User: Fold Redox-sensing transcriptional repressor Rex from Gallintestinimicrobium propionicum.
Amino acid sequence: MAEKEISQAVIGRLPRYFRFLGELKDEGVERISSQELSGIMNVTASQIRQDFNNFGGFGQQGYGYNVEYLYQEIGRILGLDKTHHLIIVGAGNLGQALANYMNFERRGFIFTGVFDNNPALYGRKIRGIEVRPMEEVADFVEQNNVDIAVLTIPKNSAEEVAERLVSVGIKAIWNFAHVDLKVPKEVQVENVHLSDSLMKLSYMLERYEKESRETNE
Assistant:
């Protein structure tokens, strides 16, 4: 039987559920209703129930949700019950910042290598990880069971580098280069355009200020 197709909107909310449930778990909360979770997350209770019903529901009528169980199940759905090995391609400021962000490891994302094409960076260590030349990436991916690559490089070289990474066995790419990559359908890509996010924030700010002006007229 084919697996149910889940909308991108639902998938996009799963990490938020996981994060908030983790905070509730740390606070010692054992049980929560969809209404209570709605108040915390600013998502309607109906939407929460619909989202969870895509995966079987998880709750009991009149009881609500067991926080620990729901946290573990959403983590499993997100693939966080296993370890992922990552490499960073691009040892500039953004690449270094990501490598130094310890919270990734708490979620099972382990940075194992950093690569760059700038000889001046070779041998430099970022949180104990030595920057290596791109010529070594194929052997490194194979020997270290790497499944995810993080691209923090200029867009003019991103397509070529992505093709190379796919050819050596990378299965997923977290792409910070300002270009939408074209890869085989079996390779998963998450494009992160920081300027797009900032422009969205600018739009929301402009909209709020416009509404405020109209209200005060």
